Amino acid sequence: MAVHNVAWNATSSGVGSTEGIEAALEWLTGGMAEITKEKVKSYHGARMILLRAQIQQKKAAKQSICHLGHEFLTKLSELNDLGARIDDGNALYIRLSISALVNGSIELSVGSEEQIKGRIKLEVYPGQDPVENARNMLTKAAQKAKVEGLPIAFD
């Protein structure tokens, strides 16, 4: 699996459950991420908390991807629009449903629901196809997740 790092970002409003989102991020990353919180104002002036879970070490980043689980990773690797989720800097972007994640389920975000935004920086060298690298990485992570029984149940 060719990955440099992984980052997840979420926001919690004044009525949101910051602790629940933080626990979900901890679960999602397998406890390998450094989680930071920052108080910010939204565009409209409401106070919010920006939560960021970041994994800089390659080995931990690769392992944390497996915590997305076999089914989710397989589904993601088979998407026809996987190339549209990869930018020119070879980063794969994933948006997950916050409500599903807080309830212990990993699902792609649909529509305008609240999201946790994921960024997986792919290791791509000249002459390699980023989409092919992403598919291979996701497939290997799915296989490893299946062997290791990931994700574990969310408490």
Describe this structure in words.
The chain has helices spanning 18-28, 58-66, 70-77, 98-102, 130-148; strands at residues 3-13, 34-41, 47-55, 91-97, 115-122. It has a single domain, classed as 50s Ribosomal Protein L5, Chain: A, CATH 3.30.1440.10. A five-stranded antiparallel β-sheet has the order 2-3-1-5-4. It has 155 residues and is of the alpha+beta class. Strand 2 and strand 3 form a beta hairpin. It is globular and about 45 Å long.
**How widely separated are the two ends?**
29 Å
The whole-number mean of residue pLDDT values reads: 93
Number of domains: 1
Question: What percent of residues are in strands?
Answer: 25-35%
CATH level-two architecture: 2-Layer Sandwich
Helix content: 25-40%
**What's the SSE pattern?**
EHEEHHEHEH
Summarize the model shown.
The chain is of the alpha+beta class and 155 residues long.
